Amino acid sequence: MEHELYLEKLKSSINILSDILDTENYGMCIVDRQGRIVVWNYERFFHLRASEVLGKPVTEVLENTRLHIVAKTGKKELFQLQKINGTNVIANRIPILYHGEIIGAAGTIIFKDTRELGELYSRIEKVENSFKAYRSEIAQMYRAKYTFNDIHTENDKMISLKEFCQVVAQSDASILIRGESGTGKELFAQAIHNGGASASYPFISIDCAAIPKKQLEAELFGYEGTLFNGGETKIGKLELADQGTVFLDELGSMSLDMQAKLLRVLETREFEKSGSNKKTVFKARVIAATNEDLEKAIEEKRFRRDLYYRINVIPVQIPPLRERMNDLPRLCRVLIPHSRYGYSRKNLNVADSTMKILFQHSWPGNVRELRNVLERAAIVCSSQEILPEHLPEYLQKYNSGPANADGKSAYRQEIENLERRLIQNALQNNHGNKMEAARQLGIQRSLLYKKISDLDIKTDYSK
Ligand SMILES: Nc1ncnc2c1ncn2[C@@H]1O[C@H](COP(=O)(O)OP(=O)(O)OP(=O)(O)O)[C@@H](O)[C@H]1O
Questions:
Q1: Which controlled-vocabulary keywords does the entry list (predicted)?
Q2: Structure ipTM over 0.90, yes or no
């Protein structure tokens, strides 16, 4: 009898619960050990009042029921499809135990009709599909356009660097690309992204120097709508890069505060948006670039050593253009714009005299500077050849007359010939004695040695 009392207690608790629970999509029926109904709040689903069914065997009231079975076996049955009055419902059946003894079973229906569940599924499916569509749209919007084929070079060092980067593109390790401004750091970063498994995912570039320090955090992490920001939500670049690459350009100019936050993300692979305490998983690869001397910045306490080690897993150093001048002719070929005002000029090329000038410049702005020079020249030139006069003013200083095959100006060549003749004469007059020759020329002996070597002068005049 004790267990009947227990069932009674359960019944009154459930009645209280039904007042506070959402009973619109939720109902409960309890049977005793014999399968007789003791609690019934399925009223709204089956249009049968409790007074009509209480005490009746559940098998007489509910079609396809198994509650009486669960009240015997004690084995719960969850999320079962049950057809009642031509309607599918999802039913849970749970045995009720009292001091370890089965005294009945409780049945719950969560959804009135599986059509509702179907509708919910199709709504979820629609949301998922539009989510997929947005994701591929984001990947399209943030596409990396360059591949390794766009890195043009004939320089051995650059060819090996390209091959090395093709290998590291296959891993997801962090990369730190270093090089002067305009050497092609972003070009390499994009090629690495496109050469690896993340190619179809977004490539998100963030210029840490261009974004005001205070804004950088919101750009990277995003924020959730709160009362304080008028409910506005922003997806951060770290989240947007989902499975792709985050390219942190000018990393050296990131504030110490942001460096600490970035380090935490790289270590835990998760982050918190401002205004939210939920963690967002960080799933992208990081490629950073800088033209700053980071080691010096570490010494000067402007850059965190731990972040440096975390990012500099694979260091990539791009040489400046002046150290790979044999790339000039090829770069000129690919960087000359072959159209002007919409007219195609496929055969536009650089005249030899112009090339000689380009060889004399030290290109502090590297490939970007060269591209700008060629773009400007292509605009001002109406012939098929870019001539010295099409070059900007600051390059005209190298244009001191027609140049020789080795790229020296005629003026420079004349000076060298004169120097060579004077030194040869002095050496001859002094039977190859360099000290005497230097005295005769009125120059330091060290300068004479340098000139002899630079001008490749024969020094054996003793005989
Ligand atoms: N080897 C190359 N072949 C073809 N184009 C190149 C090469 N290197 C650089 N470029 C071109 O030069 C320009 C500058 O390159 P990029 O922007 O990648 O340089 P960067 O080192 O990232 O510059 P910054 O330090 O200013 O950010 C781009 O237009 C790029 O396509």
A1: ATP-binding, Nucleotide-binding, Transcription, Transcription regulation
A2: yes
